[in-house]
Amino acid sequence: MPQFDLPLAQLREYRYQEPEPADFDDFWARTLTDQPEVDVVFEPYDAGLTTVDTWDVTFTGYGGDPIKGWLLLPANRSGPVPTAVEYLGYGSGRGIPIESLAYVSSGFGHFVMDTRGQGSSWRAGDTGDPSATGPAVPGYLTRGILDPDDYYYRRLYTDAVRAVDAVKRHDHVAEVAVTGRSQGGALSLVVAGLRDDIAGAVPHVPFLSAFRRGTAVTEREPYAEIVRWCSIHRTKWERAFATLAYFDATAFAARATCRGSFSVALMDGVCPPSTVYAAFNAYQGPKDITVWPYNNHEGGGPEDQLRTIRVLRELFQ
């Protein structure tokens, strides 16, 4: 796919102009307050690895729903280790531990949060979503889209915030940073905006940012799910975007104060560069962005993982 979005000079200045809801902060304060206490179970798990200790984790997510995850720690640790909490891309689940060895091989802890209701597109998951409601097109972006209280991402964002509480309960977890790719990058921005106790956020080609812009400039999935829903429910599109405004990663980025280290791909038809820059330019903490001029949604691929490791070393020194 060619470079289809704004020129790089304009991307660096791009600001998303859609106003956020007046009660945005109240909505999220209420959402996070109206939850049961976080409970977590760390069950030792034999992953067949000799250099990594693994736990099968279950913690209390949104509404008391059980959410799964993997915790991986270096077997040769002498005490608590700094840990990366990773959120996953659209359609992905936690998979199996052998798929998540890069960060723990670099000496960090690694918590991989499963994604409720997903985990059947490209990596397996083990967590359901018992609260799905309302007419929706295939996928997750339009589930409950007419009411912020019922919207799918209200549940997933809350899970992501509570995952940090869960992993911090382990005796051998020290400081925490958050990271992820695409949907996972958006979740890391959400957590950075809603918490003040994380060391940094490393979002790769983040999704769920500048919804109106994303749906206007790309025909690719998953933004096309919203377009398809609005084309069928053609008298309700304004209500749909009013809901989405509570879940825009740009708004959370504007509340984040920890270090943010982004990546963007200029040929990305899934998360258009202007949507990534909308979040980056709104981000309030110290920040940097790595640009991949000739890449699509894979972004920097393994180079982004190496970049994350370098950032974690800087954060945790």
Largest sheet properties: 9 strands, mixed
The average pLDDT value, as a whole number, equals 96
Report the span from N to C terminus. 40 Å
List SSEs in N-to-C order.
Answer: HHEEEEHEHEHEHHHHEHEH
CATH class descriptor: Alpha Beta
Q: What number of domains?
A: 1
The CATH architecture term is 3-Layer(aba) Sandwich
Poorly predicted ranges (pLDDT <50, ≥5 residues)?
none
Overall form: globular
Strand content: 15-25%
Q: Can you give the helix content as a percent range?
A: 25-40%
GO biological process, one term: polysaccharide metabolic process
GO molecular function, one term: carboxylic ester hydrolase activity
Domain Acetyl xylan esterase: 1-305
Active site: 182, 268, 297
Account of the 3D structure:
The active site is at 182 (nucleophile), 268 (charge relay system), 297 (charge relay system). This is Acetylxylan esterase. Residues 1-305 form the Acetyl xylan esterase domain. Substrate binds at residue 90. One of its GO terms (molecular function) is carboxylic ester hydrolase activity. This protein is α/β, with parallel strands linked by helices. It has one domain (8-316): Alpha/Beta hydrolase fold, catalytic domain (Rossmann fold). Helices cover 32% and strands 20% of the residues. It is built from 11 helices and 9 strands. It has a 9-stranded mixed beta sheet with strand order 1-2-3-5-4-6-7-8-9, with helices on both faces. Helix 3 links the parallel strand 4 and strand 5 (109-113). The protein is globular and about 55 Å long. 50% of the residues are buried. The mean pLDDT is 96.
